[in-house]
Design a protein that fits this description.
Blueprint (H helix, E strand, L loop, with lengths): L2 E8 L6 H9 L17 E7 L2 E7 L9 H13 L5 E7 L6 H12 L4 E6 L12 H4 L6 E4 L8 H11 L17 H16 L4 H4 L1 E11 L2 E10 L2 H8 L4 H18 L2 E10 L7 H6 L9
Parallel strand pairs: 1-3, 1-4, 4-5, 5-6, 8-9
Antiparallel strand pairs: 2-3, 7-8
Helix pairs in contact: 6-9
């Protein structure tokens, strides 16, 4: 008897959805930073067992949208809640429920599929007494688990439980497939992660990265040219830094991780350009890979 199914990871920004995805997969396919709204796209990860296949769907954090990009991110999360077999509502158990947590709980209540509550970041709490109950009151969750995705605590019971409830069926994807994301997407996300790590204020929310060229120059060298787009000249100046030092540091950090990924030398040619209000332009959202759910 073979089992296979989809599980959507929903939650407000910065509750650890991508960290959990990476931890369960045992490898990094989604970038993670302390900045809210790091995840902007739906990212799918596939866990294979001899008798089962679990497809995890990471989603952008549900938040109050201030532009078209934010609206598409929220639509992506809502769409994911309808196209799966189970919902995992991740919350930050070290903090009380927020308005955004209540929005996600509303999606769980209205969904025609079961939802589990995952109380994440338990490592930040010395005493869990009274921490989980306010979240359990938000929706009729079928089960709940207390976990730390960062330290991989409590993941074995969660993993075993979800495989137990998967519906019977054939595998959706071949055994060698771990994610549905393209190589260019992964490269662009690694570069964006390093920009988010290095900058603050409005820059992390206004930056997007596009891979312009990626070619294997030899078996030991991959050439990548990429552009980081921001919305203002002041943001461009921040990313470049005095004498280009910030951009150089970002490039070095990205290149180091990409070389570990490829297993050989990477030449990264990184540029910064200004595209005013790209987060509100449909054409630029499409060019940068932010497509509305259900559209190709």
């Amino acid at each position: 008897m073979y089992k296979a199914g989809f599980v959507a990871l929903l939650g407000r920004p910065n509750v650890g959805k991508s960290t959990l995805l990476n931890a369960l997969l045992g490898r990094k396919i989604a970038i993670t930073t302390p900045k809210p709204q790091t995840t902007r796209n739906r990212i799918m990860g596939v866990i294979h067992r001899p008798d089962a296949q679990l497809v995890l769907v990471d989603t952008p954090g549900v938040h109050k949208a201030l532009h078209k990009l934010g609206e598409r991110m929220n639509k992506t999360s809502r769409s994911a809640s309808r196209d799966v077999d189970l919902i995992w509502h991740l919350v930050d158990v070290s903090r009380p429920p927020s308005e955004e947590d209540q929005w996600v709980a509303g999606l769980c209540r209205s969904a025609a599929i079961p939802a589990w509550l995952l109380a994440n970041k338990c490592d930040l709490v010395q005493n869990l007494a009274g921490r989980v109950e306010p979240y359990l009151a938000l929706a009729p969750y079928a089960r709940h688990f207390v976990v730390s995705a960062f330290y991989e605590q409590g993941l074995d019971p969660l993993r075993d439980a979800v495989f137990d409830v998967l519906p019977e069926g054939s595998p959706y994807f071949p055994e060698e497939m771990v994610t549905d994301q393209s190589e260019d997407f992964y490269v662009s996300e690694i570069i964006r992660e390093k920009i988010l790590d290095a900058t603050r204020d409005e820059v992390p929310y206004a930056v997007a990265v596009m891979v312009d060229e990626r070619v294997a120059r030899s078996s030991r060298l991959t050439f990548i040219r990429a552009t980081a787009y921001v919305e203002r000249d002041t943001q461009k100046a921040i990313v470049i830094g005095s004498g280009g030092r910030m951009l150089k540091a970002i490039g070095q950090a990205a290149r180091a991780e990409l070389e570990a990924y490829y297993g050989h030398q990477v030449f990264l040619d990184l540029w910064v350009k200004v595209r005013p209000r790209w987060r509100n332009e449909d054409e630029w959202l499409r060019r940068l890979g932010f497509r509305e759910p259900g559209r190709s």
